[in-house]
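Field notebook, page 464. I keep forgetting to write these up properly, so this time I am using the form the group agreed on. The chain and the ligand, guanosine-5'-monophosphate, are recorded exactly as supplied. Prediction of the bound pose follows.
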Amino acid sequence: MCGVIGLFHAGEEDVFPDAVNGLFQMQHRGQDACGIALADGRIVRHHKGIGHVREVFPSRPLPDFSGFVATGHVRYPTQGDNRVRNTQPHVVSTLRGTNLALSSNGDLTNYHTVRARLEEKGVDFLGTNDAELILKFIAWEHLEGGCSLLEAIRRMQREVRGAYSATLVTGDALYAIRDPWALRPLCFGTSGVLHVVASETPALDIARVDLVDEVGAGEVVHFGREGITRHPHPDVASVRHGSPVPAHCIFEHVYFSRPDSIAFGERVYDVRRRIGAWLARHEDEAIDVVVPVPDSSNAIALGYAHESGVPFEFGLIRNHYVGRTFIHPDQARRDDGVKQKFNPLRSVFKGRRVALVDDSIVRGTTLRKLTRMVRAAGAAEVHLRIGSPVTRHSCFYGVDTPDAEALIGSRMDEAGICAHLTADSLRYISVEGLREAAAGDGHFCMACFTGEYPEPVREQKASK
Ligand code: 5GP
Ligand code: SF4
Ligand code: MG
């Protein structure tokens, strides 16, 4: 998970402030590093660094760091490799004066194969990042292969497998590029003069541009002096090995996206409310109070409360300044993180039969700790209600789920998980229930629950 933005101002006004604000609205998609590349009609300049958007861009890094075309990125925390050379945007500059910069969200599944082919042609790599591979593929085809940028992008789309929602900047134009499965989100909007491409719609809202549409599966959208030109993929099913339908990451609705985002055609808040309503309709325990694990489950618990009439309470108060507990490699530190993050309100729990709602169970760390905490706060019964099906499989498309062995859902059945979490009962939404709640075109990747990846995944997850 990462966030990308692209901007183009038709009046050739500076877009640096809008780029920073848009990235800031997507800070939840990546807190490790960020960067922006800007073009002023000729030169592409870039600035990137480790840290949050407001830390890397407290102000304009240099007086001439401005331009009317931009690409920007926020990078999701990963366990090890947080070197600046792997941060985005990636930039290619040639002696002939060509400048290109690209940011992308998503993981490729045939990185090593494609990289080896490019290295044989003499292409050098600075790091091990998918976006660098995509950019250098396009740059090589365009500069050495002599084809147009659009054709270079089409060639990249034929070779490269996996997820990419990307924005590409030339000296004076912006391209939005989406993989044929449309795995990760990417939308665009315009005010008439300012065009913005982004992973999530709040980045459009802050720039006061109106949402036009998603970038289609396999589509390339060009933003230039002549306006907006859409290039739907001429044969998108062929680059999906014959599949007539895309595969949007359902986890965007479950967890990643902000509730105020419109993802895959649906408001995420509404989807989460419908997930909660499904859980309420399938309730078979007597429940006195429904409590979310904040913040990602708030709308799910609210949907549950509205559907069932059971009172909703914020029984767990969250400390917003606790860092990332989820990805810490050490279990003891993850356990401690959960305690630091949540504190229970005894008055909410005392003597009550509680439905404790969370969006997902990955390793089980959070809910094992919270079940005990809620019981210690006086709850009579703790019933866990989960807004996604059992997570059994790893993600190969850019989500930092651990290897399958670390997923509690791949090691135990539901009764075993319930016992491990020390809960009185446990219920997950079904795959069909989730698909129904997510609505949209109904074409989702649900591989972390079903193991059915949109295309065969051969390379190992941990090998990059
Ligand atoms: P667990 O504690 O079971 O390992 O993880 C489940 C918790 O992590 C849930 O509260 C959920 O909101 C959160 N979560 C699920 N997926 C991700 C992810 O990819 N990244 C982060 N940071 N948190 C996640
Ligand atoms: Fe999303 Fe899961 Fe598919 Fe990864 S495997 S893209 S997290 S639905
Ligand atoms: Mg959570």
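OBSERVATIONS:
- The chain has a mean pLDDT of 94.
- The pocket of magnesium ion (ligand 3) is lined by residues 293, 296, 358-359 (CB under 6 Å).
FOLLOW-UP: compare against the apo run.
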